[in-house]
Amino acid sequence: MRPPITDDQFSALIEEHKGIIYKIANSYCRHAEDRKDLIQEIVVHLWKSHGRYDDRFKLSTWIYRIALNVAISAYRREKKRSERVSPLEEIIIEPAAETEQPDPKIAMLHRIIDQLDELNRALIILYLDDNSYRDIAGILGLTETNVATKINRLKLKIKEQFTQTNQE
Amino acid sequence: MELDELKQTWTEHARKLDRILSLNLQGLKTAQLDKTQSALGRFKAFRLFEMLVGILILIPLGSYIANRFSVPTLVIPAFIVAASILLPVIENIRQLILLGQISYADPVTTIQRKLEEIKLHYLRSFRLPVLMLPFYMAYVVVGLNLFFGVPLDEPGGQPVFCRTRRLGSP
């Protein structure tokens, strides 16, 4: 067991990895309210699991695993999380400004991600975040070969989708 | 466009996100992370509660069976009721063991497999009460006698409903 983490250390950890948490929450919850609750749930799990963090893994691997597990479980529950987490309305991570028009390529990417199942969604996020096949395999619990095969399939699928969209 | 081209766009977007995402420190502090119970925690608490209630019912039921062992017309319904409570209690214990093994820091596929297994056990615990529906009279007999003290026994040890049948018979 690791020594308990202080509030400041935990805040620093979340600050450093807020991008990962937000991207995962955003990929599994398109609705702002649900996303807010999901981020809160991920942060709660990170806080509670910190004592069991295994030094053998990278900190980002640990964060990815917890965030993806919480997000996939929440996604499968298909209920409003606001009733289950805590009655607090605190927004923990939020974009400072959303004034700019979203990048059409990013919007298209999100549409593609939305069409994938939970595991492939995790796979594509990890791939796009430039994780190595070895890291992706460790986070998801798959073999490296399996990861490579699945990513190749996803590449083909996405290419087909783009071709279809362009033809239309 | 291919996935690798999109990766470039995604990386740029991630850099931008890092700049614009702000951590609400006050929100983090007031979120009372220690006290906030996750969905899994609530599920666990509910399973524990169910298990304790089941055990609390099984104790008097066990004593009831022991005291009326010579009266099959009461012991058989009591056994049926006991089985219908004992099996969900066992399912609850299994679920609690599985829940104890869940650590969200484990690989995604491992955790999702365990969660599916728990869901299956949970659904199974509902199957038994449905299967027991044809035996609803057992619950009535044991429930009235054990929990409400309705005297179903006559001095000779025969339940009232048996005596009624005898009176009606030629």
Keywords:
heterodimer; A: 168 residues; mainly alpha; Rna Polymerase Sigma Factor, Chain: A; Arc Repressor Mutant, subunit A; 7 helices; 68% helix; B: 170 residues
Q: How would you describe the overall organization of this protein?
A:
The complex is a heterodimer of chains A (168) and B (170). In chain A, helix 1 crosses helix 5. Chain A contains seven helices and one strand; from the N terminus they run H-H-H-E-H-H-H-H. Chain A is globular and about 55 Å long. Chain A has 168 residues and is an all-alpha fold. In chain A, 68% of the residues lie in helices and 2% in strands. Chain A folds into two domains: 99 residues, RNA polymerase sigma factor, region 2, helix turn helix motif (Rna Polymerase Sigma Factor, Chain: A), CATH 1.10.1740; 68 residues, Orthogonal Bundle (Arc Repressor Mutant, subunit A). Chain B is mainly α. Helices cover 75% and strands 2% of the residues of chain B. Chain B contains seven helices and one strand; from the N terminus they run H-E-H-H-H-H-H-H. Chain B is elongated and about 80 Å long. Chain B has one domain.
In short:
The complex is a heterodimer of chains A (168) and B (170). Chain A is mostly helical.
Structural class determined from secondary elements of chain B: mainly alpha
Mean pLDDT of chain A comes to 81
Overall radius of gyration of chain B: 27 Å
Amino-to-carboxy terminus distance of chain B: 90 Å
Largest β sheet strand count, sense and barrel closure of chain B: none
- Straight-line distance between termini of chain A: 57 Å
Strand tally of chain B is: 1
Residue share in β-strands of chain B: under 5%
The number of domains of chain B:
1
Major β-sheet profile of chain A = none
Counting DSSP E segments of at least 2 residues, the number of strands of chain A comes to 1
Total DSSP helices of chain A? 7
Beta-strand content of chain A: under 5%
Order of helices and strands of chain A: HHHEHHHH
Helix fraction of chain B by DSSP (H/I, runs of at least 4): over 70%
The assembly state of the depicted protein chains is heterodimer
CATH class of the largest domain in chain A: Mainly Alpha
What share of the residues of chain A lie within helices? Answer: 55-70%
Count of DSSP H/I helices of chain B: 7
Largest interface: A-B, 67 and 46 residues
- The topology string of helices and strands of chain B comes to HEHHHHHH
